[in-house]
Amino acid sequence: MNATRKIRKPFPWHLVVFIAPALIIYVIVMVIPLLDSLTLSFFTEDPNNARNTIFVGIQNYKYLFTDKYYAPIFWGAFKNNIVFFLIHMLVQNPIGLLLASVLCKGGKIRNFFRTVLFIPTILSFVLVGFVWKLILSPVWGVSKTILNIFGLGGLFRPWLGLEETALITCSLISVWQYIGTPMILFYTALIAIPDELMEAAYVDGANAWQIFWRVKFPLILPTVGLVAMMTFVGNFNAFDLIYTMQGALAGPNLSTDIMGTLFYRTFFGQQQQMPNQTLGATIAAMQFIIILIGVVIYMIWQKRTTTYEY
Amino acid sequence: MKKVYLLVVFVLLALLVVPVAAQEAEPGAKLVIESWRQDDIPIWNDVIIPAFNKVHPEIEVIFQPTKQEDYNGQLNTRLAGGTAGDLITCRPFDPSLKLYESGYLANLNDLPGMQFFDSSAKVAWTTDDGSVTYCVPMASVIHGFMYNKTAFEQKGWKVPVTKDEFWALLDAIKADGEYIPLAMGTHDLWESATMGWYNIGVQNYKGEEGRLALINGTAKFTDPPYVKTYEELGKWAPYLPDGYQSVQYSDAQQLFTMGRAAIYPTGSWEISVFEPMINGAFEMGAFRVPKDNADDPCYISDHTDIGIGMNVATKYPEAVKIFLNWVATPEFATLYANNMVGFYPLAKIDYTIENPVAQEFLSWRKDCQSSIRISASIIGRGEPGMDTDIWQTSANVINGTMTPMEAAQYVQDALAKWYKPQQK
Predict the structure, then answer these.
(1) pLDDT category, A100, cuts 50, 70, 90?
(2) B162: Cα within 13 Å, side-chain hemisphere
(3) What is the structure's pLDDT at B7?
């Protein structure tokens, strides 16, 4: 018996045991429904038996992209969603970074502000929507009174009711609500940078501005990417705030309609509009594809970017 | 003697057993009512359900309404998921027809109480071929304008009959400056259609004549009567509250009930909501849609609005039938008419209404021809549907972002896209 006996590692059963609960729950509540929803987008309701569906291939997608009445609604929602995302990227994240840098400066009232700035994020969107609707109301709103104090009463407009301003207003309210998340993420990234690096830069003669852009910013770049991706995913899944403030029809004239509200109306129906679950699933699939593209771009970028260990 | 005694006992027993056996509710039956009328919670809980429990104490009834804008969507979801209530309050026409066709609503042809209703009352909840009725008709609502009678008397304003008088009145109220002429906003969209378009349109397109002409394909939405409705609606803008583009339904209600607005375009359903809000601060009146000439015939939007049906999946079908039969009785109709002021029962019975504003609305039924909302039946199908299109376009016209002709063209094109009789 000269054969070399292969020494096989025992199968790592403990890993299976540890992963299984999370994996099983994730598959049941996320993966299966997702696949089911994607499948549903290739079917349509059987006209002869409303509870049955029949396979139609990509007809739902064709309808969504080419129908004379539905395509403009879909592309309108897509365009509005991009504007919604851009406003978050250009307003929420820079201000979040600014607030985080200010908080890093220390000071006694830092903890107080850190808490206060984070509070809107943990408030219910129903409450946020309701409060802001009241503030901006032309009948009862306090915004008109405040503008009057500064003699700017003439600037008051029914912002939520005008096509040109409704989407921007809703986006800024959403920014106000969620600013706490990027702020806390940037804050934790900034305080993790060792003081020696900043001291070294200072000794080398860099001013505060240079230290921030040349030392701190490259070090928190992974967090910047993460925040951008979270904003992207969150915005293309957004629904609740618009729904509470502008209703399911996302008025005026669909100017605040985003993918989430379009999906809601199509899938669940709206007043006399009948629910169309297969077309709704098609819109959900489009949301999934858009988000997937965003995440893939992020992953590629993340692979290429340099991360520093300290 | 003993035989006679036994016979009597048997007869008495039989008398007791037979009717009870025929109408026995399941023990412990607990019925949940789905509805979109959140405003009616107190009336159901304090009046209607106790009155029912006097007759049937063995059945527990729970009134569980949803927010009105969300009702159809959430109801559909709950029915599909099997968590919906036992009794379903039915929207008129297509939304309920779809529920019946999907097998969620039971066939009620054999319900004894149905004999109290004419086919005109049942039409909103009957299949296109007229073979099956699936909801018990409960009530209709009548559209019109409410006004602050006290203010009108003080200022010497007169209720308008013709459109010229209506515009002159609005100008007078605006010039006076103390009251907002018309309390309505376009933010929530549906008021522009329900309080606006459906309210005044019916007079322009001559009620059923214009509604059926669209269904038969002999008229188009771009014809003068329909475009004219948009034109008149567009002229409302200067008389609405400042910033009306973001004034909501509840804001408009508050403006009127607080006495800050003179006229409120609406329907009879608002009477029971407004009376406690006004709380005697001023007297309320109602006038119907102004006409082109004083001697024109008048048309009103008298919309069959509420029915109630049975969820096929209910655990207590017998108890549900007992309840539905009770809903069909004159007792319920009288109770409903006087408590849900502004909702007019559809049963063929005589009932009296105490409330003067509700009486005013009801009196129009005698003088004018009734018609239901234009998008309710048949032509309302399609995606997203004529009702939604009228919401959007009416609000756009009032906001000034669409011309009346563009609005009518939009609705017509969306209709012609799927509706054969309009494709000629």
Answers:
(1) very high
(2) 8
(3) 56
Domain membership flag for residue A159: yes
pLDDT value at residue B16 = 47
One domain for residues B179 and B267: yes
**Which of A107-116, B105-114, B254-263 is predicted with the least confidence, judged by mean pLDDT?**
A107-116
Contact A161 B254 (CB under 8 A): no
Same domain? B37 vs B128: yes
Q: Tokens standing for B214?
A: 């669209």
Number of domains chain A is built from: 1
User: For residue A163, which residues of chain B lie inside 8 Å, CB to CB?
Assistant: 399, 401
Measured between CA atoms, the residue of chain A closest to residue B387 is A272
Which residues in chain B (64-83) have CB-CB distances under 8 A to chain A? 69-70, 72-74, 76-77
Q: Say whether B383 and A69 touch across the interface (CB within 8 A).
A: yes
Helix (H, G, I), strand (E, B) or coil at A208: helix
**DSSP-based helix, strand, coil % in chain B, nearest 5:** 50, 15, 35
Q: Which of residues 223-282 of B touch A (CB under 8 A)?
A: 241-248, 251, 254-255
Query: Which amino acid appears at position B111 of this protein?
Result: L
Identify the domain containing residue B62 by its residue range: 27-141+304-361
Question: Which of helix, strand or coil describes residue B88?
Answer: strand
pLDDT at res. B19: 43
> What is the nearest CA distance from A236 to chain B, expressed in angstroms?
22
Provide residues of A within 8 Å CB-CB of chain B.
50-51, 68-70, 73, 133, 136-140, 156-163, 246-249, 251-254, 264-265, 268-276, 279
pLDDT of B17 reads: 46
Outline where DSSP puts E strands in B224-330.
261-267, 284-287, 299-310
H or E element that contains B146: strand B135-148
User: Does this complex have an ipTM over 0.95?
Assistant: no
Q: Are A54 and A46 in contact (CB under 8 A)?
A: yes
Closest CA to B304 of B65, B148, B119: B119
A12-28 residue pLDDT tens? 888 999 999 999 999 99
pLDDT, residue B21, reads 41
In a domain? residue B245: yes
Phi, psi of B103 (to 5 degrees): 85, 20
Tell me the C-alpha distance between B209 and B216, whole Å: 10
Residues in A closer than 8 angstroms to B98, CB to CB, are 50, 274
Nearest to A162 among B241, B245, B392 (CB): B245
